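Try this one yourself first.
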């Protein structure tokens, strides 16, 4: 029978050190193989899906994207969600995280821009010219205007600002069908559940079930800018190369193909 004696002194110290060293040494290997987790505004889905497929082919690195309203994503990051990168559809929600020191400020850039449009189902005969005091409420009649939630979701906030500037918000505020995201707004119109809606031009161009009635003047609302930044809590070493890729020519072409204005220089 063999008796196992407890290790003392130098031998015990060396064994403990070897165990700790082995654990620490394994951490970078795990980090290097972890997917990149991006929290992105829903309106970027088509462009980012294309870009991430290209990135996987070129680098072998997989990017996983959670698409939702910028407001919801920012709140999830604030609550401790393990995102590596945040892409907002407006400056406000990126500022919200920056004020709470939840992004890495040196990584923040303005990535792309967009345009706001009024849409109708593809079969609609509606004809409206967007101008001050245009007859939006009269055109809606007893039906509703589809918008992303104007209290928090960027597309809805931009839409409300534009309608206020044009002098028609008070006449339609009680007719709004509020959706969780701009993509949900698009579906309401494409399915004929709302006769008109306000979305980004890129969303409208991606869905054959809708048509663009008119474009809102750029000076009727704050500039539509999508900022990007690494999340402060991320230690994923794959983040920096991916951020660089999003500013490279291949990503620029993919964004522009979907109708975005590329803003970020390489």
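Now uncover the answer:
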């Amino acid at each position: 029978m063999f008796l196992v004696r407890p290790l003392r002194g130098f031998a015990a110290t060396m064994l403990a050190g070897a165990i700790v060293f082995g654990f620490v040494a394994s951490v970078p290997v795990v980090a290097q193989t972890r997917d990149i987790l991006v929290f992105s505004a829903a309106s970027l889905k088509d462009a980012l899906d294309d870009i991430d497929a290209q990135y996987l082919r070129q680098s072998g690195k997989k990017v996983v994207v959670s698409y939702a309203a910028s407001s919801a994503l920012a709140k999830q990051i604030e609550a401790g969600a393990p995102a590596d990168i945040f892409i907002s559809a407006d400056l406000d929600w990126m500022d919200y995280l920056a004020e709470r020191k939840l992004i890495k400020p040196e990584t923040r850039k303005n990535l792309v821009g967009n345009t706001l449009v009024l849409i109708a189902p593809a079969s609609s005969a509606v004809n409206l010219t967007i101008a001050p005091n245009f007859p939006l409420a009269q055109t809606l009649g007893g039906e509703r205007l589809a918008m992303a939630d104007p209290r928090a979701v960027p597309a809805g906030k931009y839409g409300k600002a534009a309608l206020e500037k044009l002098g028609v918000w008070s006449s339609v505020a009680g007719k709004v069908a509020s959706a969780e995201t701009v993509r949900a707004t698009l579906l309401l119109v494409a399915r004929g559940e709302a006769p008109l809606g306000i979305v980004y031009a890129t969303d409208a161009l991606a869905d054959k079930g809708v048509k663009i009635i008119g474009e809102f003047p750029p000076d009727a609302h704050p500039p539509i800018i999508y900022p990007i930044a690494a999340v402060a809590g991320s230690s994923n070493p794959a983040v920096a190369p991916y951020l660089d890729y999003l500013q490279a020519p291949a990503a620029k072409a993919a964004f522009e193909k979907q109708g975005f204005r590329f803003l970020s220089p390489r």
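Discussion: Residues 132 and 166 are 4 Å apart (CA to CA). Confidence is low (pLDDT under 50) at residues 1-32.
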